[in-house]
Amino acid sequence: MWRRPAQSALPPQDRGRRDPRQLARLLAYARPYRPMFVLGLLATLLSSGLNLVFPALFGRLIDASFLKVGSRDTGPLDRTVLLLLGVFFVSALFGAAQSYLLSRVGASVVADLRRALFGHLLTLSPRFFADHRTGDLTSRLSADVGTVQGVTSTALAQLAAQSVTLVGSVTLLVTTSARLSLLTLAIIPLVIGTAVSIGRRIRKVSRQVQDSVALSSAQAEEAIGGVRVVQSFTAEALERARYGRGVQAGFQAALRRAGLQALMSGVMGFLTFGALALVLWYGGRQVMAGALSPGQLVTFLIYALQVGGTVAGLTGLFSQFQEALGASGRIFELLDERSELREAPAARPLARAEGRVSFRDVGFRYGETDVLRGINLEVPAGQIVALVGPSGAGKTTLVNLIPRFWDVTQGQLLMDGHDVREYALRDLRAQVGLVPQETLLLSGTVEENIRYGRPEATAAEVETAARAANAHAFIEGLPGGYGAMVGERGIKLSGGQRQRIAIARALLKDPRILILDEATSALDNESEALVQSALDTLMQGRTTFVIAHRLSTVRGADRILVMDGGQIVQEGTHEILLAAGGLYRDLYEVQFRRQQAGEAELSRLSAGAP
C-alpha cells in the first residue's frame, strides 16, 4: 500500500495557536465527577479561609508575649496558642480531604480522556494511520493526556483557593495598615505583567517539547518494532543518531522552557522579596513611631507573604494552564479527526451475507494517483477468485475496498446487490475474514488470539477451530498449551504457527467472504503445506479472494484475474490463461525458470558439487 510522509493534523501555521475554549472542552470531561469536585473545591476554600485566620492569631501571640513582659498571667498566651493549634488542625484536615478528592477527579478524567481518545482512534480509517506515526499517537495518549491531569483537578481548585487567599489577604492588609498596603500592592501589576509576557513564550516552547517527545517516541517505536531489520543492516548507529537528534531537539526545547521558567521565577522572586524588604523598612519605622504594634507588623508581613506567594502561585498556575492548552490542542486535533468512511444515517441490517460481490466500473484514487480504473467484476457466492500481477498492480487495494478500509472514488461496490456503504461498518466487516501475509498476534495467550475472532466462543469451539487449522498439535506442545504466551506480535512462534493461529481465528469468526493476502508466500515448504491444507478447509463454502505471487498456489481457483496498472487485463482459469499468452504466461514462465534453477542448484549441492 501507499504511505505518505507522516504529518500533523494541522498545517504548521495553525499548530501553535491555543484556543482558550479548549479549556472549557477539557473540563467537560470532569462533569460526571462534579459532586466530588465540588466537595474538593469546598474543602480547598475552607482550608484557604482558615489560613487567613492564622496571621492575625500569630500577631496576637506576639503581642501577648512581648507587650506583657514580666506578667504572670499566661492565659491570653495559652488561649491564643490553643486556638492556633485548632486552626492548623482543621485546616490540615480540609487540606487532606481536598488533596484526595481532587486527585481522584484528575485521575478519573485522565482515564476517561484516554479511553475516549483511544476509542476514537479505532474509528478512523487506514488513510489516517498511513499519514501519522504510531509513536506520535501513543505519545498523545500518554504524555499529553498526563499533562492535562493537573488542570482538570487541582489547578482549578488552586485557582479558586489562591483567589480567595489573594482577596482575603489584600483586604486584611488594608485593614491592618493602609499605607503599607499601597507599598505592597504596587508590585502586583509588575508581577502579573511578567507572568503574562513570559508565560506566552513558555506555552509556545512547551508545545515544541511535546512535539519533540512525540517525534522521538515514534522513531524509537519504529526502530524497536523493526529491530531485526535494523540489526541485519547493522544500522544501530544510524538509528541511535536518528533517535539522538530527536532527543536533542526535545532537550534543547526543554532547556529553553527551563530558562524561561527560571527567568520568571527569578524576576518574580526579586519583585516579591524586594517588596517585603521595603515593607520591613517602612513598617519598622512605623513601629518605632508607635503607629503599629510589633504584632501588627508581624501580621502584616505574613499577609504580605501570602499575597506574594499567592501571586507567584497564580503565575505558576498560568504556566500550567498554558502547558495544558498546548497538550489539549494536540489531543483535540485527534478527537476532531473524522473518518472519511461515512456511515449511512439509516444503515441496512446485515446479519448474514450470501457473499455475492460486484464491482461496477470501480475506480480508486489515492491523492493524485489513480490506483484502480474501470474494474467490472461479478463474483458469485462461494467462488474462489485469485488475483495475480506485478507489485503495485492494485491487487491489495481491490480487496481492501470490500471491508471498506477504503471507499471507492468512482463507481459502486456491491455486496448481495446493495452498495457496501449502505451497511453499518460493524455489520459489513463481520462478514469479512482476513488472513494477511504478516499476521498480527496480540501479546496474550494462544487462546486469546484465536478467540479474538469471536470473544464469546467456548473453549471447545476454540479447540475445534484450531484443529481445523492444523494448529492443535503444535499448540498442545507449547508450555502451557492454549494458555501459552505468544509474545509481542507473536514473536515466540514461527511464521507457519502464526499463520495457522490466524486461520483458526478466521474459522472461529466464520465469515462469508474471505481475503487471503499472500498468506503462504513467506513460509517454507513444510509450513506452506500445513497452512495450505488449513486454508483449503477455511475456504470451503466461502467467497474467497486470494492474492498470491506464487502462481503455483492459485491453480485451483475458479477464476484467475490478472491485474496490471490498476486494471484487470486478463481473466480465466490457469490453463486458459497459459494458452492465451500475455502477462500471465510471462509471469508463469519467469517463475517456472526460477523454480527450475533453484531445483538444479539444490541437486548440485546435494550431490556435493563444488
From TrEMBL:
Where in the cell is the protein located?
A: Cell membrane
Domain ABC transmembrane type-1, first and last residues per copy: 38-323
Read off the InterPro entries from this record.
AAA+_ATPase (IPR003593), ABC1_TM_dom (IPR011527), ABC1_TM_sf (IPR036640), ABC_transporter-like_ATP-bd (IPR003439), ABC_transporter-like_CS (IPR017871), P-loop_NTPase (IPR027417), Type_1_exporter (IPR039421)
Q: Say where the protein is mainly found.
A: membrane
Transmembrane ranges? 36-59, 80-101, 180-198, 262-283, 295-318
- Per the record, the domain of life is Bacteria
Q: Name one Pfam family in it.
A: ABC_membrane
> By its UniProt entry, which CDD domains does this protein fall under?
ABC_6TM_bac_exporter_ABCB8_10_like (cd18576)
Sample GO molecular function, one term? ATP binding
Q: How does this chain sit within the bilayer?
A: Multi-pass membrane protein
Q: Does the keyword Transmembrane helix apply?
A: yes
Keywords (alphabetical) are: ATP-binding, Membrane, Nucleotide-binding, Transmembrane, Transmembrane helix
Q: Where is the ABC transporter domain?
A: 357-590
Q: Which PROSITE patterns does the record cross-reference, listed alphabetically?
A: ABC_TM1F, ABC_TRANSPORTER_1, ABC_TRANSPORTER_2
List the PANTHER family. ATP-BINDING CASSETTE SUB-FAMILY B MEMBER 10, MITOCHONDRIAL, ATP-DEPENDENT PERMEASE MDL1, MITOCHONDRIAL
Output this protein's name. Answer: ABC transporter ATP-binding protein
According to its UniProt entry, this protein's organism is Deinococcus hohokamensis
